[in-house]
Amino acid sequence: MGVLGLLACESSYEPISGWIFPRMTVLASEPRAPESRDGAGPLAWLLVLGIVLAALNLRTAVTSVGPLLDELAGALGMTSVGTGVLTTLPVLAFATVGAVTPALSRKAGEHRLLLLALVALGAGLLVRSLAGSATVFLLSSALALSGGAVGNVLIPTLIKRHFPARTGVMTTVYTTALAAGTMLAAAATVPIERASGDWHVAIGVWAALAAVAALPWLALLRSEPERDGDTPRAGIRQLARSRLAWMVAVYFGTQSMIAYVMFGWLPMILTDAGYSIGQAGLILGVFTALSIPVSLLVPAITSRFRDQRPVVVGLIACYAAGFLGLWFAPASTAMVWIVLIGVGMGSFPLALMMLALRTRTAEATASLSAFGQSAGYLMAGAGPLTVGVLREMTGGWALPYLLLFAVLAAQLFTGLYAGRDRFIEDERAAAGS
């Protein structure tokens, strides 16, 4: 049925207008259309469609390049330094642009800013598909990634603002669409390149998907929500003094670090264990595909509880068992351990949920989303490089595995703190009193 089908299933229990918008906040600044007075069903579906299409695009600028990286570097005359910059750009964009997104949204409005982000994403993808030099390719990639970074921060905020009573359901929709878009771009880019015979087409086609994603937000411009100017703002400086904000940020960073390490180094781990390149690629594909069912299940389960600590422990246990098996068990059993690690990767949708669950207002969600993701991605970026250095030093995987278990320990500690039923605003109020 797809992600929209999830919402249709849910509506069999309550009228859609009742659960999508228990309190209609979309049109606070504009007169409601007649159909909106009964719950704004059409607008609710338009918001859901807009979130799904935007989420499908947030990683295409990243995962469409990896499969063609060698070919791109050769065609553009890109040096190893340029290739290193290209692979580092996502982390830099997500950290820096994400940090300023709340300030931009206060000036431009959330709907308008997301529309501009999708336009920037599509324009960057289109320009880099036409690039004839490494410099132009890098600059246009930075533009596209900046659009994705804005979307990373804005969508959790929009979910909190428009779907306050159904954060779990909408986070399921969001993370599933995000995982599907990530896998689609990674899996389809090479077949498109082979069919067309041109890498420009293979990476440029994703600009069309961004253009389609912009259409719902173009229609939603007149429905820009009114923001409460009296709501206290939790800026980056304030959150930097918040223990809960740091726990959420470190939890987000540790799960991202493990993800980056696995996607970057899993093929080599497997080939060193005796698998062929083709077999390693197949296992990596299975590992990537697991993110879709995991993104469906984890938020749905998590949203049933006010305290997320049992889910944190369960995911850590899957990670630990998977890494131990991959490290010590016979290589022929690798698929079993990869599946367990794939389940552990449910920490990503859980981390996204915490951005909304640990805040009371959309404004606080925006700030925590920006702070948590910016700090988290900066931490995560060091993971693949550190693993590479450790393997180069020792010639084996023992130290990298020990590093992963140290990261898991930090993830467990911060997850147990951030998983409790508490809120950023209450922490600030307690500190003030």
List keywords for this structure.
single chain, about 425 residues, mainly alpha, Growth Hormone, Chain: A, 2 domains, about 75% helix, globular, disordered N terminus
Describe this structure in words.
By secondary structure, the chain is mainly alpha-helical. It folds into two domains: 1-225, MFS general substrate transporter like domains (Growth Hormone, Chain: A, Up-down Bundle); 234-428, Up-down Bundle (Growth Hormone, Chain: A), CATH 1.20.1250. It contains 21 helices and no strands. Helix 13 (243-272) runs antiparallel to helix 20 and helix 15 runs parallel beside helix 18. The longest helix has 33 residues, at 362-394.
Count structural domains. Answer: 2
* Structural class label: mainly alpha
Proportion of strand residues = under 5%
CATH level 3 topology of the largest domain:
Growth Hormone, Chain: A
The major sheet is characterized as: none
How many whole angstroms does the radius of gyration measure? 21 Å
Mean pLDDT: 84
Compute the separation of the termini in Å: 50 Å
CATH class label of the largest domain: Mainly Alpha
Number of strands: 0
* Low-confidence runs of at least 5 consecutive residues: 1-40
Helix content: over 70%
What form results from the Cα inertia axes? globular
